[in-house]
Design a protein that fits this description.
The protein has about 280 residues and is an all-alpha fold. The protein contains 14 helices and no strands.
Length: about 280
């Protein structure tokens, strides 16, 4: 196995492929730690494919998926500013970092900024589609955009984005996009349809989506007045969030807020805020 200590320039691709596979397995803490060690290695000329930039993109991406949005956003802003798109490889790395920035902004409820960033990434991907394989990052960013549109209460637009791109998605991305489609239906009061859609999601979502299907299920059940079932679902969602995600992950707070509404234990003033 290639390690940090033994990898040569020709082996960086193998090293980063391994780290990406670990990220897909939800091993965010390990990926971030190893990527930061790589990023700290002596810098090398860009033409020799240095590990520095790709390692920093991997590290910040792992932090975002784990749920450390505010911390990651500061680092992403610095990284994006430094990573000038002087070549196709660096341009793709910068676009990946910007897509991760969409997630961080959305998690912090800075939805207008997140929408602007997502649309910028999608425009740039369209411009280089003839030069590089961009479909995977494009689908991922469109999924982020659908979440952002839900956050902006533009649920019909979110539905169009999610439904229109589901046929192109596969693997975990398809399941998460399907759950976001269900959430957009919840936002339109189409709760039965939402339940039908969320049931299409895989039973074991990726770690970064921990608690998401049960949270959307609970929203639909609550909308249908099925409080006992909704409470069971949101408690499952909260347990998954607390087990799989960083304590700062915004989904944990969402699950707690929904549980409070369902059980009637809302803090004073929260009802008015949620209806605003």
């Amino acid at each position: 196995m290639t390690t940090i200590r033994t990898a040569r320039d020709s082996q960086w691709g193998e090293t980063f492929a391994r780290l990406r596979a670990m990220s897909g397995e939800g091993r965010y803490e390990e990926v971030e730690a190893e990527a930061r060690t790589l990023a700290a290695l002596p810098r090398r000329p860009w033409r020799r494919r240095p590990p520095h930039w790709e390692a920093r993109v991997l590290a910040t991406g792992a932090a975002v998926m784990h749920g450390r949005m505010a911390e990651a956003l500061d680092e992403l802003d610095t990284l994006i500013a430094e990573l000038e798109p002087v070549g196709l490889n660096s341009q793709m790395l910068r676009l990946i970092a910007r897509s991760n920035r969409v997630v961080a902004l959305s998690g912090l409820r800075r939805y207008a900024e997140a929408e602007t960033e997502a649309n910028g990434v999608l425009r740039e991907l369209t411009g280089i589609a003839h030069r590089a394989p961009v479909s995977r990052l494009e689908i991922t960013t469109l999924g982020h955009l659908a979440v952002v549109l839900c956050g902006l209460a533009r649920h019909e637009e979110a539905e169009a984005v999610a439904r229109g791109n589901l046929p192109r998605a596969n693997g975990p991305a398809a399941g998460v996009l399907n759950t976001t489609l269900a959430r957009s239906l919840n936002g339109q009061g189409r709760y039965e349809e939402a339940l039908a859609e969320v049931r299409r999601s895989p039973p074991q979502p990726p770690r970064y989506a921990g608690g998401y299907p049960d949270l959307v299920t609970a929203e639909a059940l609550y909308g249908l007045g099925r409080r006992a079932e909704a409470e069971d679902a949101v408690r499952r969602a909260l347990a998954d969030c607390e087990r799989q995600l960083h304590p700062a992950h915004p989904r944990t707070a969402e699950a707690r807020a929904l549980l409070a509404r369902i059980t009637g234990e809302e803090p004073r003033g929260s009802r008015g805020e949620s209806e605003a």
